[in-house]
Amino acid sequence: MLDYATLRVIWWALLGTLLIGFAIMDGFDFGVAGLLKVLGRDNEERLVLLEGIEPTWEGNQVWFILAGGATFAAWPMLYAVSFSGMYLAIALVLLAFILRPVGFNFRGKIHDPRWASLWDWVLTGSGVVVMLVAGVAFGNLFLGVPFRFDGDLRMSWHGGFFELLHPFALLCGLVSLSMLLAHGACWAALKADHTIAARAVKIARWMTLVYAVLYVLAGVWVAYGLPGYAIAGPALTDGASNPLYKQVAVGGSWFASYMQYPWFWIAPVLALVSAVGVQALIGRRSVAGFIASSLMVGSTIASAGFALFPFLLPSNLDPRSSLTVWDASSSHGTLQLMLIVTVVLLPIVMLYTSWVYRVMRGRVTLEQVRKAHSGY
Amino acid sequence: MIIDADVVTLSRLQFALTALYHFLFVPLTLGLVWMLAIMESVYVMTGREVWKRMVQFWGVLFGINFAMGVATGVTMEFQFGMNWAYYSHYVGDVFGAPLAIEGLMAFFLEATLVGVFFMGWERISRIKHLLVTWFLALGTSLSALWILVANAWMQHPVGAEFNAQTMRMEVTSFSEVLFNPVAQDKFVHTVSAGYVMGAMFVLSISAWYLLRGRNVDFAKRSMTVAASFGLAAALSVVVLGDASGYTVSLNQKMKMASIEAMWHTEPAPASFTLFGIPDVQRRTTHYAVKIPWVMGLIGTHSTDQTMPGIAELVDTAKGRIGNGIQAYDAMLMLRQDKDNAQAKATLAANDEDLGYALLLKKYVDDPRQATPADIQRAAESTIPNVPVLFWAFRVMVGCGFYFIALFAFSFWKASKRQLDSQRWYLRLALWSLPLPWLAVELGWIVAEYGRQPWAIEGVLPTALGVSSVSAGQVLTSLGGFVLFYTALAIVDVMLIRKFIRKGPDGLGIWPPIVPPTMTAH
């Protein structure tokens, strides 16, 4: 049996893995949806783009559902505080997730350009909302959010929707948006008819550039403009999950963890190297370009998680209520059981997912789209 | 702190609406997908093209419904955190696990395969496609299994205990949570209800084609599958419903007594009230038509055990509130000094009743200060809404028996190959279409509304589970749900009607549109 502290670190890494899995797998679906009207100039071109993500988007979305479910199981306090605290923001994301499945399914069911256009806008809108809000939420982790616990560990939140829109958080929203638009463009470059793919290559290059500039800017802001949080005194890593048992010092730097664990630097360096990789590769070898953009997405999220470690959700109202890896997890037994279940099932999921991608491989051409739709 | 009653009411309303709405689509997915698997199996075994076309036609309707199920399911997964934050904290250690396992084991499977099901016909072999359909069906039923394991724990929380340091329930035995007897009965009862709905959907729409003389061959084949599948499912739903009733009467005596409007304990074996008007004020049931023995047999599977009535259960609750206050006091002492041995012993002796002390939080901030009047009120608050449960249960069960009769008759007609011989039968089959929806929604009401005032039976009162959100926020999201869900419902019904009206013939699915080169003859 693994000890409690180790399990907590593993579950911190697994939470990161699920978020990265979501960002990479569903991120390109959102990116393509966000670029639908830009890359696809008429209905047929948009159909090509949609058919490039239609067979697999639904499975990809499960990464998000699973990230939610696993947070509930392994980090119940994080699940409870973040979802209820950012209530309206989460409701907005939820709306996007409600409209997406029906958008994909309903769009082709009535042959009327206005009908198709309506759902194109719905898909574009839901893509943009999720990409933006996800970044804004991440940004707020660095700023801290206004909550505190009472003795019963009942959380109260003292802020509203608009307080989440701090300029730094908005910058993070733009980092997320440009990163995933680039990632989506890379998918289109790989999957869509050559005429559309050529356009996607250009957009991928521009968006990676924007992303890289904003990412560095956000890093500088974190380094010089934001106070970091630290657990005061030695952290009790295997104690009961009760945030109120610790004290927190505010005022250091979020980069402190990078000083403590220098190998963390791999993540931000890899993120920028991958951005260069996208620039170099996407025009000639689209598969390699897409892998580069996936690495870019994954290491960007990892770099944020590393900076926050061991914090999961800092409170700027009552710092000792902050949720950390050491005091917001499930019990030892639950972490252990869920680890076993995940280790057994996640590889199986990856196995059949890759089988599905192999079955559905190949570019979607304009000719294909025309042929398939002449049947009705 | 005293909880804002408006937030509780609005959060409950939102949860009920979104769950009932989600439950319009999920059972149909559960049932329809197995019909697709059966049809495709026949196709692979016989090689007859018509069976493949049946899968494709019913598949279009399945797809529309599946999308709605996915869309409304995301809400369910996230609403616990959004609106029930204290609930999520208090029981996440136990309740979160089955939800996460559902994602990993089941939802991933169905969501990943559904794309290949629709778009893979030309890309993989027949056998592989059949396997995809079977695994898709398996995924949907597994999904129901884990959700119902989670739900069963809300009805009958086993394998967990309260931890005063973390202020929450923590797992002591996962196998108890997983093999919760309530979970098993609920799983089979619920998926069978879904299978009945899938069968009724195919039966009714096929009957409509036969009434119009369209797609006759296609419709008869579909009806035959629906009749046999539906008969098996309808029998199972009632038999397992009975098993479910038995486990409810063991574990949720108050729910059972309320379903029966059994105000006072009757000598064993209790009679079953077939009809009556429950009167909450006077605690009696007017015009009761009773069948002797039946209730005792259903509830205890014996003739000599009594079933407690509502008044007696309120007395029991009063006693448990007393014990709960002791547990609450011990919990507070442990918070000051976690090594206090006496407090530990008191809590251990009474922790099963801690939840009953929490019922008092509605009336007093500190349950230890409760007056006898508060305790009386709290004990009476354990009575759910008797008339609603009484009627919901009776209509649901009535539907169940009707389904057995209808599918048995359909099965007999199908085996005599006389499905389209009598128009009244076809009309009956057509007009029975809404009944499975009525039955499953009422089933949800009996199970979940009947659990009130508890979120987790005996452990956490619903009112304590809410988030620290304002009534305005919940009203905003509730309004959003009502608006978008209504719009989607309209579009959904419109599309399903459109594709049914077009039918296999109008869509060119069957008879297949002959390729142009063949028409040259």
Shape of chain A: globular
Strand fraction of chain A equals 5-15%
Number of H- or I-type helical stretches of chain B:
17
Largest sheet of chain A: 2 strands, antiparallel
What is the share of helical residues of chain B? over 70%
Give structural attributes.
heterodimer; A: 376 residues; two-stranded antiparallel ribbon; globular; B: 521 residues; 17 helices; disordered C terminus
Give a quick precis of the structure.
The complex is a heterodimer of chains A (376) and B (521). Chain A is mainly α and 376 residues long.
Strand and helix layout:
The complex is a heterodimer of chains A (376) and B (521).
Chain A: H1 4-34, H2 36-39, H3 43-53, H4 57-74, H5 76-85, H6 87-106, H7 113-143, E1 147-149, E2 155-157, H8 167-191, H9 194-225, E3 228-231, E4 248-252, H10 256-260, H11 266-281, H12 286-308, E5 311-313, E6 323-324, H13 332-359, H14 366-373
Antiparallel strand pairs in A: 1-2, 3-4, 5-6
Helix pairs in contact in A: 1-4, 1-7, 1-8, 1-12, 1-13, 4-5, 4-13, 6-7, 7-8, 8-9, 8-12, 9-11, 11-12
Chain B: H1 5-46, H2 49-83, H3 85-119, H4 126-155, E1 160-163, E2 168-171, H5 174-178, H6 181-212, H7 216-251, H8 253-259, E3 272-279, E4 284-291, H9 294-300, H10 310-336, H11 341-350, H12 354-358, H13 372-380, H14 386-415, H15 423-431, H16 435-448, E5 454-456, E6 460-461, H17 471-506
Antiparallel strand pairs in B: 1-2, 3-4, 5-6
Polypeptide structure, described:
The complex is a heterodimer of chains A (376) and B (521). Chain A has 376 residues and is mainly α. Helix content of chain A is 70%, strand content 5%. Chain A has 14 helices and 6 strands. Chain A has helices at 4-34, 36-39, 43-53, 57-74, 76-85, 87-106, 113-143, 167-191, 194-225, 256-260, 266-281, 286-308, 332-359, 366-373; strands at residues 147-149, 155-157, 228-231, 248-252, 311-313, 323-324. In chain A, strand 1 and strand 2 (155-157) form a beta hairpin. The radius of gyration of chain A is 21 Å and the shape is globular. The termini of chain A are far apart. The mean pLDDT of chain A is 95. Chain B has 17 helices and 6 strands. In chain B, the strands form 3 sheets. Chain B has a two-stranded antiparallel ribbon. In chain B, a hairpin with a 4-residue loop joins strand 3 (272-279) and strand 4 (284-291). Chain B has 521 residues and is mostly helical. Helix content of chain B is 71%, strand content 6%. The interface between A and B is large, with 73 and 76 residues.
